Each structure stands twice: as C-alpha cells, then as structure tokens.
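Narrative of accomplishments. A recurring question from our advisory board has been how the design workflow behaves on a single, concrete structure rather than in aggregate. To address it, we present the structure tokens for one chain from the evaluation set, followed by the sequence designed for it. No filtering or post-editing was applied between the two.
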C-alpha cells in the first residue's frame, strides 16, 4: 500500500522549534525497514537532489545525488518533486539489489508538504509529467513491499538526515551543471 502522512496539526514553520522537532521525532519513531530522506534545491545552475538512506536509526550515506541542467527555470517545487522521484528510484534499486527484506515497510520523508499533497491528489496532477514517473515506479515496487509511507518533516529542525540531504542538494548547486 501507499500511505501519505500529511497531518501536522496546528504546526507551521513559525511554530516553536521544539514542537516541530517533536513532530519529526514521532514520525521517525515508527518502525520501518528503511527510511529515505529526500531534498531538492534549485539555482541558476539547475536542480540539485539528494537522498539519504537510514537503516536501524543510522544514516548510511547519501545514496543518490544528482544535478540536472534541463530545468534552468525550475521552481523549488519541481526540485522537491525531483527529490521524491530520486527517492522512489532508489527504493526500486535497493529492492532489485536485494538490500531490503521482502514485504518491507519504507518511509520516504521530505520537507516539501506541497509536493506530497500534489503526489497524493486525485486530480490531473497525478498523471502529469511531474508525478506520473513517481507513480510508475511505485506501481512496479508495490507487489514486493508491504508499505511505502510518504511523510512530511519540518526542515532544519532536529532532523539530521534531512539536514544532510539538504546540504548535499545545495552543494550540488554551486557550479556549472553536469549530467543527470
């Protein structure tokens, strides 16, 4: 199944940091076989995307980091969606490599609530060029996973894995663009 955890209650970016951090801790306390934390950033040089793999509470590494030049006029929204796409592609690669157990539960976390809401929508966005590739990968992996849970985390708030993904995506933006 695919589940979206979009509920943040009354919390906003302006809420006290300790409240936002508590939300993040609750999210990451649920038992899963793997967590993929994605982030995307945009600059005049293109889009930078990074995905961190976390297993057993330990960050393994930045498992996917890339930069694209085809979107010079991209928005931060499209960069965040590119981060989600990189995360589901990494999930598929981990499954193919046998790095995850059969019927696993996976959490994919991002600090972009709007990208998750768009991916979750039932309208034309679901089949749009920006979301369809994500759903294509999900449909391929769903027969072998128990659950893929997408969730929103507050960025820059007691979530070291998100902070590292953010820093890596930002680092990629500091120079001319390479290949995707």
């Amino acid at each position: 199944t695919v589940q979206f955890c979009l509920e943040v209650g009354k919390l906003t970016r302006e809420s006290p940091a300790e409240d936002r951090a508590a939300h993040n801790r609750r999210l990451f306390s649920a038992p899963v076989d793997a967590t993929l934390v994605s982030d995307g950033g945009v600059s005049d040089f293109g889009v930078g995307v990074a995905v961190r793999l976390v297993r057993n509470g330990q960050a393994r590494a930045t498992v996917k980091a890339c930069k694209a030049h085809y979107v010079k006029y991209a928005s931060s929204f499209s960069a965040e969606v590119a981060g989600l796409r990189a995360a589901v592609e990494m999930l598929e690669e981990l499954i193919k490599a046998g790095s995850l157990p059969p019927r696993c539960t996976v959490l994919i976390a991002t600090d972009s609530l709007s990208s998750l809401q768009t991916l979750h929508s039932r309208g034309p966005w679901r089949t749009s060029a920006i979301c369809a590739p994500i759903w294509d990968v999900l449909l391929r992996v769903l027969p072998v996973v128990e659950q893929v849970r997408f969730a929103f985390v507050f960025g820059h708030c007691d979530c070291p894995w998100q902070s590292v993904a953010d820093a890596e995506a930002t680092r990629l933006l500091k120079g001319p663009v390479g290949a995707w």
